[in-house]
Amino acid sequence: MTLIIDKKLPAYTYLEREQVLEMPTDEAEKQDIRPMEVGILNLMPSAVVERTEVQHLRLLANTPLQIRPTFIYFDTHKSRSKQDHFNEFYKTISEVKKAGLDGLILTGANLEDRAFEDVLYWKELVALMDWAHESVTSTIYSCWSAQAKLYQKYGIPPHKYQKKVFGIFEHQVLHKRGSPFLAGMDDEVLIPQSRWRGAESKDFAGRDEFEILIESKDAGPIGSISAGQATKSADSPVVGPHMVAGRGGREIYVQGHPEYSRNDIADEYFRDKSAGIEINTPRNYFPGGDETKTPMRNWSANGQVFYSNWINWVYRTTNVDVKKPLMD
Predict the structure, then answer these.
(1) Helix/strand/coil for 227
(2) Annotated active-site residue in 37, 124, 259, 268
(3) Residue 257 annotated in active site
(4) One of 22, 143, 159, 171 is an active-site residue; which one?
(5) 205-234 per-position pLDDT tens digit
(6) How do the domains of the chain map onto residue ranges?
(7) Fold for domain 3-284+293-317?
(8) At a CB cut-off of 8 Å and minimum separation 6, what does 47 contact?
(9) What is the rounded CA–CA span in Å between residue 27 and residue 20?
(10) Which residue of the set 56, 159, 171, 257 is catalytic?
């Protein structure tokens, strides 16, 4: 037993092909088990909505627990091209709030070129994040959504970079912290990064509500720009956290992309290159730097370890009443 999903969901075909464990709804209902309710707010552009669904369902599937993933979209803001898909397979934020969640995942978004307040759905997003802060056992904020939450709730603005943090980077796992989210993970892990801005380790210094779990001294050199001034040269390394735990695990901030498939970075690179957009070659990605060769996927296993740890932690911590966040 694992994911309880609608077989009509287009992503199901890909999951079946990959032999990702799933359970039909009618079969799940025969078991005397309350499934773990995990919401996924999909903020990715229309062209990759279904790819993003597959990525996250794949990561949720490798535990013996029964999980019911629910894809989420906004009540008021509507998609210009995918709204029919959202109407059929997604629930609105108001519906999800009424039903309750054990865990929540907010994906990244292609919005790093604008101020948060200029995002069309910003007010609805803030309302969801505020609700999750109080009502959800643990929430994973990924890439742009991590930047959004850190800015909105804690006043930590993202640093802008002279070049895109792009490619596969080596990260150090801080096992000495003894975090349950790191159990079974290697000491050094490779993680895809694809962003023009982000938080840096120095932003969390002296803030007891945060705990850096995985960071990299190699996620540069990109040089950060703060308040319009270059604070580092393009050759100076920036110590960047990939994963930060907040409020003892109630919030997890993930700046990289452990959910990426083999060719996702290549697709981004060639898309921008074809469109004439200035883009640096992804680091440590194409074998021998040869863009014609198939990239090596060398990050997925440790990403899967984290998501399994997160699911197990939420399962042990959440209340039997899904509308309450923590165990009595």
Answers:
(1) coil
(2) 259
(3) yes
(4) 143
(5) 999 999 999 999 876 544 444 433 444 444
(6) 3-284+293-317
(7) Rossmann fold (3.40.50)
(8) none
(9) 17
(10) 257
